[in-house]
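the two lines:
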Amino acid sequence: MRWSRYFLPTSKEPPKDAETVSHKLMCRAGMIDKTSSGVYTYLPAGYKVLKNVERIVRQEMDSAGAMELLMPALQPASLWKESGRLDEMGEEMIRFTDRHKRLMLFGPTHEEVITDIIRRYINSWKQLPVTLYQIQTKFRDEMRPRFGIVRAREFLMKDAYSFDRDEKGLDESYQKMKDAYVRIFERCGLDCSIQQADSGVIGGKFSEEFVAKGECPELEVGHIFKLGTKYSETMKALFVDRDGKEKPLVMGCYGIGVSRIVAAVIEGNYDKNGIVWPISVAPFSVLVVPTNMENTLIGSAAEKIYTSLVKDRIETLYDDRDLSAGVKFSDGDLIGIPLWVVIGKKFIEKGKLEIKIRREDRFVEVDTENITNWIRNYKQGK
Amino acid sequence: MRWSRYFLPTSKEPPKDAETVSHKLMCRAGMIDKTSSGVYTYLPAGYKVLKNVERIVRQEMDSAGAMELLMPALQPASLWKESGRLDEMGEEMIRFTDRHKRLMLFGPTHEEVITDIIRRYINSWKQLPVTLYQIQTKFRDEMRPRFGIVRAREFLMKDAYSFDRDEKGLDESYQKMKDAYVRIFERCGLDCSIQQADSGVIGGKFSEEFVAKGECPELEVGHIFKLGTKYSETMKALFVDRDGKEKPLVMGCYGIGVSRIVAAVIEGNYDKNGIVWPISVAPFSVLVVPTNMENTLIGSAAEKIYTSLVKDRIETLYDDRDLSAGVKFSDGDLIGIPLWVVIGKKFIEKGKLEIKIRREDRFVEVDTENITNWIRNYKQGK
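prediction for all of em together
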């Protein structure tokens, strides 16, 4: 991608309402834009990061044997009456009466919908265990939206639901999800602690939270629950067990704040100059920086290197803007791309490229023909 | 994926309210499940198809130089007051008053939000042209939801917005999108006609519809608009042109019904036994069908072939269910996977595999060691 044609509006000043590092940096680095209180647009670079997180979550869910579906945000209130949760939910849940005078709501979570699906299709122990998940937009009318996308009114969640014959099965499904969560957060470059937690309106008898340790505020990025039979009993999601008896399904549910991970990664990966992306979620792996576009030797070398990196399928941003090296470097630090290929003085003098490793603020000299291999090796080591 | 562990609830009978072939087949093939009137869950196989369509749309948008972002579904009504459209929208638009007594809505379209973003970041002709797009969930309180996901209350759309200096620029941006649309529909296996259309509440002076020619009902799958300065004038999205004068941006907008494409593909690709997926959007490329699981020769060969196809990264569904060949074949026809590897009599007698080409209802004999190559060649030819 050529920066001159890319919609990446960086700025020197953070918005006035920004209290946290991640909120300030996401706005300054042109990742998000506020449409209304607690309502944000992911601009192209921000959306690339969100999609990278999504990809990691999806891969680990699939590896753990969970199957992806997509449930609706719109839900009939009748399902929530059945489960008994309609009155428990406060003003955070967005409700409206539709044209046919039915009470509808925008689901802050999907236990009712998935239980309704499962009770209609699963009736035998032979069909168990099953774990299903989705990556889907949630709505919550927060009293006081804060911290940018962290406490927003619209956000992206991964929610998974497991169905088992008994407690032993639930323990196994729960452990599989817990292990997948550990891998997800590790791959995203997050350092998380696992804490026993209050199950709140989700319910069940046991739950654990994954909390990202990045400074202030502490960020809950995942929450997993042993629900037991709370929903299957009230909503009559029953199956016939091996012994011929009808029993309620034993459930678990597992949430990850996908958009919140993006903020948590920044809280744990920045310096005084900007974001320091782990390469696994970075919007681009490589930034190509010619220090002086007016020097034709530098300009044509940069163009050639950019083209060859794209051909080699390395996600590259090419700073082809006619700006001073100083401005390019400070913008580059701000948006935090892990590896920079700098084409400047050293190239003119010795024909060498310089790779800057953003995290270490260290430069390495590399021959032009080795650039792709060097980058691939670096990525593999991460 | 092993069918015995996959959540793919096929059924013999379509739901009573299903009027169209696509609605009937999507329900029978375990692709979708109804939560409420006009509100559907995409079950795992259905969601795979939707994601394949998404992937094609995304690739063609990126190739055309459009940049992906993600705007919110939640929008403040104040933006719609500014554009003058708030009163034009009927009861289809879902509105609610939030906890701070502000009127909010679930955007059926995003001209206001994107214009609001662009007017704050783009102020010079040097930053133009720009085309941005998103693949995002839309909500519409349809008076009479019908035809399954075709006229639903929640659906997936791709909407793109172009910004140019003048009419000539708009014509070029418009043509690029139109060309991309032709490629998208072709790759999805749709035969579309392009018709001049009424611009409705979107506005502007010229628009064209892409209509899938799949029997009854005719399906509008895309609609592209030359908006001109309708939004940029009322919302004051201005830029300074080369001549130093301030002018309103010249806009276009471009919609594709992503979920609707899935239904349109089925309407154009089925036979009396079920769906006949084009391989580009099929939930799986290959179905492995051992005709008799009790025969250990057949069972172990099927297991081996399935494992090797997965290793070769071919999306494969393995019908490992202990059911009769007849049931497997009719389920296979229903869900419409393009290529089947049948392991049965011919394998026992001659050591040969049979590939069934679902679309042609034709069998081809292939040696076990050539199976991946044969499938790759077939896919490349499509």
